[in-house]
Design a protein that fits this description.
heterodimer; A: mainly alpha; B: alpha/beta; Amidase signature (AS) enzymes; eight-stranded mixed β-sheet; 38% helix
């Protein structure tokens, strides 16, 4: 599996990662090598094998629908890059 | 004091031979004197540690101490610690001071265990050499040219160099066992669900598990006893009683059936490592164990399967690092997309970006069946191999790694070569089984680890099997020159 420059750029966009222009060829090579390693999977016939998402056959635990957390907004927001009136500030996206 | 095990330190504190404050000071002084050579700590919490030590001494004096009250340990910097920087060795979280404690951290605090600091690791636990840390690589105390392994390399190096008597680690594909092997200490990755993942920064949620790292199996038993147990804040935490892991340490091994998978002794295994492991197996025969040849036929598929499952889950988990609510934010973003892209581009190192991209690709439209679904099917086959094996044997043994520690820089530019360093440890995570690494010898002055794999929730047996070996041998009590 060989990825080219434009594949890397489109994957980086999907992942919302800024990648330096100069680094793209190295990523293309490394990602291609990783996908070649992964390709060994296709040598096995897995028809009829149930996919395993979790080591145990567990069901999601449910709890009563009651308030279990205290409001800690200020405590939790103290490490945010920018806040105002209890809201997280981000750049303006709509002109 | 620094040469004592946790069990010996706990006994000394109880007998009043020294106080927790004296003990904590001694370790803080050792860290100051020696960690410049190793870089095993990211943050040393000296003042906090001394305050915790004085509180522990008060508990001991008042007669309300638990078995480990006053013992100092270090936490891998992946565990959230209230009021203390929790960086995950990433530039992304370099400014992040956790607003709460991970369950593991909280349990140790309640037990009166003192925190010396936060240990170095591969960035977001992605790596096998500790070279991907934003804070620089950790050196192996046995040979400063060698890597300590990863991702819990700081914890392993700190314990090996006696800069902490024990430490926490996490293991997603070998990140406790591989550095334990490379640094000559004992490490245990418990059954998936045994230890709470709450507050442990997520890498691959269906594989991540926290465990103890220490000099001896006896110490790992003590630490695991504090860490293990149900937590309603972790949706995959298992509701199951925690046994007394110390109670059966001395059980006789007569009749123990040890499975040796032929796939773990084939091509790629260094000859000197193979003979070291064979010598350890001979020791077990002397202790009365029986050896059974077994096969885990899908072993070769573990690394490829893992490098779909783990990156896919990491690409999803790390999407929370977006520069909005915490962590690194780029300067002067021109719009929201620019803020996401540059904050993440600047905040993450190369290996983390590679894995996010592999995972994003594997989960992208049209590729899901070929990658993620296929990997989950193979995961089932790998897991079935172990199920069959455990119908025949009590434990499985083999090498933890194919070679002793490699040199710094040796594999740093070749991700695939680096991934293959975890060839014997990864399948255990895919199956969710418990596994240990125990020091079993030295090759050219670098430690070799024996891996012991157990059935689900059979941690007590693993600890018993490791402890009896440590009663008969002294590899676990060797210390690296320059740090003794």
């Amino acid at each position: 599996m060989a990825l080219d420059k434009s594949d890397v750029e489109s994957i980086a966009h999907l992942a919302r990662l800024a990648i330096g222009e100069a680094d793209v060829p190295a990523y293309a090579e490394n990602l291609s090598n990783i996908l070649t390693l992964v390709e060994q999977m296709s040598s096995v016939d897995t028809r009829g094998v149930a996919p395993m998402a979790h080591p145990f056959e567990m069901v999601q635990r449910l709890r009563e629908d009651v308030v279990s957390e205290e409001n800690q907004r200020e405590h939790l927001q103290q490490h945010a890059p920018a806040v105002q009136d209890g809201l997280f500030l981000v750049p303006k996206v709509i002109e | 004091m620094h040469t004592k095990t946790i069990a010996e330190l706990a006994a000394g504190l109880k007998a009043g031979e020294f106080t927790s404050e004296e003990l904590t000071k001694a370790f803080l002084e050792r860290i100051k004197a020696h960690d410049g050579r190793l870089n095993s700590y990211i943050t040393v919490t000296g003042e906090l540690a001394l305050a915790q030590a004085r509180a522990a001494d008060a508990r001991i004096a008042a007669g309300t101490a638990g078995p480990l009250t006053g013992v100092p340990i270090a936490h891998k910097d992946i565990f959230c610690t209230d009021g203390v920087r929790t960086s995950c060795a990433s530039r992304m979280l370099d400014p992040f001071i956790a607003p709460y404690d991970a369950t593991v951290v909280r349990r140790f605090k309640e037990a009166g265990v003192v925190m010396l600091g936060k240990t170095n690791m591969d960035e977001f636990a992605m790596g096998s050499s500790n070279e991907t840390s934003f804070y620089g690589p950790v050196k192996n105390p046995w040979d400063l040219k060698a890597v300590p392994g990863g991702s819990s390399g700081g914890s392993a190096a700190a314990v090996a160099a006696r800069l902490a008597p024990g430490a926490t680690g996490t293991d997603t594909g070998g990140s406790i066992r591989q550095p334990a092997a490379l640094c000559g200490i004992t490490g245990l990755k418990p059954t998936y669900g045994r230890v709470s993942r709450y507050g442990m920064i997520a890498f691959a949620s269906s594989l991540d598990q926290a465990g103890p790292m220490a000099r001896t199996a006896e110490d790992c038993a003590l630490l695991l006893g504090v860490m293990a147990g149900f937590d309603e804040r972790d949706s995959t935490s298992v509701e199951r009683d925690v046994p007394d892991y110390s109670a059966g340490l001395n059980n006789d091994l007569k009749g123990l059936k040890i499975g040796l998978p032929k796939e773990y002794f084939g091509e790629g295994l260094e000859a000197a490592v193979a003979s070291t492991i064979e010598a350890a197996i001979e020791e077990y025969k002397k202790l009365g164990a029986e050896v059974v040849a077994i096969s885990l036929p899908n072993t070769h598929l573990a690394v490829p399967t893992y490098y779909v499952v783990a990156p896919a889950e990491c690409s999803s988990n790390l999407s929370r690092m977006d520069g909005v609510r915490f962590g690194h934010r780029c300067e002067n973003p021109k719009d929201l997309e620019d803020l996401y892209k540059r904050s993440r581009g600047e905040g993450f190192g190369a290996e983390v970006k590679r894995r996010i991209m592999v995972g994003t690709y594997a989960l992208s439209s049209g590729y899901y069946d070929a990658y993620y679904l296929k990997a989950q099917q193979l995961r089932q086959l790998i897991s079935n191999d172990f199920k069959k094996a455990f119908e025949q044997v009590d434990v499985i043994m083999g090498p933890t790694t194919p070679t002793p520690a490699f040199n710094l820089g040796e594999k740093a530019d070749d991700p695939v070569a680096m991934y293959l360093a975890d060839i014997y440890t990864i399948a255990v995570n895919l199956a969710g089984l418990p596994g240990m690494s125990v020091p079993a010898g030295l090759v050219n002055g670098r430690p070799v680890g024996l891996q012991i794999i157990g059935n689900y929730f059979d941690e007590a047996r693993l600890l018993n099997v490791a402890h009896k070996y440590q009663q008969a041998t002294d590899w676990h009590s060797r210390d690296p020159e320059g740090f003794n």
